[in-house]
Amino acid sequence: MSIKMNNKKGSLTIVGTGIKAKFHISPEAVAALKHADKVLYLVSDTMTERWLRTMCPRTESLAACYAENKKRIDSYSEMIHIILRNVRDGSRVCVAFYGHPGVGVLPTREAIRIARSEGFETRMLPGISSIDCLFADLDVDPFTCGCQCFSATDFLLHERIFDPRSVLILWQIGGLANSDFKSSGIYNLGALSVLQEVLLKRYSSNHRIILYYGAAIGLTEPSIRKLRLAQLSQSSFHGGYTLYIPPLAQKGPAPTMVNRVHKALKL
């Protein structure tokens, strides 16, 4: 299918606004918003929305693509269509998503892929993600023993292999195995019992875990709910929560590997 383009060639810039309303966005992303012909956005709070509307005379929310019980994939397809329509019209389009726009955001990845294939200039500017906030709020250094991150649904349905001696982070635990949209943010958590069963094969029932939700507004505190793994399936929380599972007790380096490394380094 041929695509007609105006003489003015469009472009696409995707930016992240971070987790905490407007305080987490980079100066580079702010500049992109100010120089855009059209700003499209999907954010989680009214403060950021109002602020974004001051950046550019032409702004449009993508929130209307969501509808109660509508499949998320259908909403994402609609967002991609709107983004590309504006780019093809010849506009310098800047699209703002909360958090990091390249982490768990299907519409941004697909819009960039299609725009690039059609010859448009594209770029993505990072934002502070939920995992960045988690590392700070829970005092976690992923360098210490490594970190494994999965979408909770992907982790469960694909039976992902993981090492319990490293940190395990499961995103969107509050929407586990749900494919539709709920405006309340409250989803069916029936699959938690299945996830708990899987985790109990590697951890004890008393293993301490944390349900985490980053602070979205300045001066507020994150939600940090500590519980035992045995309590997970009986817990309730909204779709934005992340599950943090600390590692099992660490053992020392493997002697055989230490010897091999020493020989390789000629120590």
Brief sketch in words of this structure:
The protein is of the alpha/beta class and 267 residues long.
List keywords for this structure.
267 residues; alpha/beta; five-stranded mixed sheet; 8 helices; 28% helix; 19% strand; globular
Kindly describe this structure:
- By secondary structure, this protein is of the alpha/beta class.
- It has helices at residues 27-34, 46-52, 72-88, 106-117, 130-137, 152-157, 192-199, 255-264; strands at residues 11-16, 38-42, 59-61, 92-97, 121-125, 147-151, 167-171, 208-213, 223-228, 242-245.
- The model is unreliable at 1-7 (pLDDT under 50).
Q: How is the secondary structure organized here?
A:
Elements: E1 11-16, H1 27-34, E2 38-42, H2 46-52, E3 59-61, H3 72-88, E4 92-97, H4 106-117, E5 121-125, H5 130-137, E6 147-151, H6 152-157, E7 167-171, H7 192-199, E8 208-213, E9 223-228, E10 242-245, H8 255-264
Parallel strand pairs: 1-4, 1-5, 2-3, 2-4, 6-7
Antiparallel strand pairs: 7-10, 8-9, 8-10
Helix pairs in contact: 3-4
Alpha carbon gap, first and last residue: 63 Å
Helix fraction, binned, reads 25-40%
Give average pLDDT, whole number. Answer: 93
**Mass-distribution shape:** globular
Element-level helix/strand string: EHEHEHEHEHEHEHEEEH
Structural class estimated from helices and strands: alpha/beta
Biggest sheet, open or closed, and with what strands and sense? 5 strands, parallel
Percent strand equals 15-25%
Low-confidence stretches: 1-7
Spatial ordering of strands, largest sheet: 3-2-4-1-5
Rg over alpha carbons? 21 Å
Number of strand segments: 10
* Continuous helix count: 8
